[in-house]
Write a structure and sequence with these properties.
Layout: H1 10-13, H2 26-35, H3 37-44, H4 46-53, E1 54-61, E2 68-69, H5 71-79, H6 82-85, E3 89-99, E4 105-115, E5 122-133, E6 136-145, H7 157-160, H8 174-190, H9 192-199, E7 200-207, E8 211-213, H10 215-223, E9 228-239, E10 245-256, E11 262-272, E12 278-287
């Protein structure tokens, strides 16, 4: 539901398994790649699996950390979390999968469990954007929350100084960037509830404390929260060659009336509807350090 309150198990998405002969359809290939991640993590570990799966320009939105881009930076970040991650048992349940019309771009999302030695289960969700590269699905963007408390995240010094400027609506992803800015303007002018209602696809989903599906349910959930001012802007974009499915990644600030601001980062998946308008299919994010 929010631009910073999303969740997921990193483990679910980190597979670059090649397409399998028994799954010749693209959706089956993507589902198979996700299922193979358990073996890869058990064999190689989370950081190594991610570095083999994240695209060269792939974005990792880890709870409590700045946005990181690319396998090398993601590996540095995840290796810094080893003291926490090595003791977790991870499991998940995918709830959705969608492909672009050219079958070269896909999204997956669902729920997750993170079980520490204390057995106090943490529940989470995830969203992933995938790009087909040869015979392998590469992770173009991934957002998670709930695996670990954001306050427990260790931020390596070399990642703390990286900053991302707002995008301009240019190039193949320009329409998605323009839609994201329009979405943000409406939220600033008329409130987040109305903006999320207007920009949600008919089957759009937000992943906050609860899963909300459809514009009415999404708007109703936001109206139930404290009055807040929302602002955000996109810093990364990816889009299918067919231009009908893509994503924006950005930075957000949510400031409740009379309270301190929460700084976040988000992943929004966009679909072009039959009438040509862009609407979000699923949206979520997690917190980042102030100033990142």
């Amino acid at each position: 539901m929010s631009r910073w309150n999303l969740l997921a198990p990193m483990a679910l998405l980190l597979s670059s398994a090649p397409a399998r002969a028994q799954n010749p359809d693209p959706a089956g290939r993507l589902a198979s790649a996700e299922r193979s991640v358990v073996e890869a993590i058990a064999r190689e570990g989370l950081a190594a699996t991610l570095s083999n799966t994240l695209a060269r320009d792939g974005a990792l939105l880890w709870p409590g950390a700045p946005l990181v881009v690319g396998p090398d930076s993601a590996r540095v970040l995840l290796l810094a979390q080893r003291g926490t991650l090595d003791t977790l048992q991870l499991s998940w349940q995918p709830l959705g999968l969608e492909l672009s019309s050219d079958a070269g771009f896909g999204i997956t999302w669902g729920v997750a469990l993170a079980i520490p030695p204390s057995r106090n289960v943490r529940y989470g969700r995830y969203i992933a954007a995938w790009r087909l590269s040869g015979d392998s699905w590469k992770l173009a963007a991934f957002v998670a929350i709930g695996i670990v408390p954001p306050a427990a995240t260790v931020i390596p010094p070399e990642l703390a100084a990286v900053h991302y400027a707002p995008l301009t609506p240019a190039g193949p992803g320009g329409p998605l960037v323009a839609a994201d800015f329009a979405f943000a303007r409406l939220a600033g002018d008329s409130g987040a509830a109305l903006a999320f209602e207007r920009f949600a696809a008919p089957d759009g989903v937000t992943l906050g404390g609860l899963l909300n599906r459809g514009p009415a349910a999404i708007g109703r959930a936001l109206r139930g929260g404290p009055p807040s001012h929302w602002a955000w802007y996109p810093v990364l974009v990816g889009v299918a060659a067919s231009r009908d499915l893509g994503f924006t990644v950005g930075h957000s600030e949510i400031k409740p009336e009379g309270g301190p601001a929460t700084y976040g980062k988000y992943l929004t998946i966009w679909r072009r509807l039959p009438g040509g308008e862009l609407r979000f299919v699923i949206d979520g994010g997690n917190v980042r350090p102030p100033g990142s």
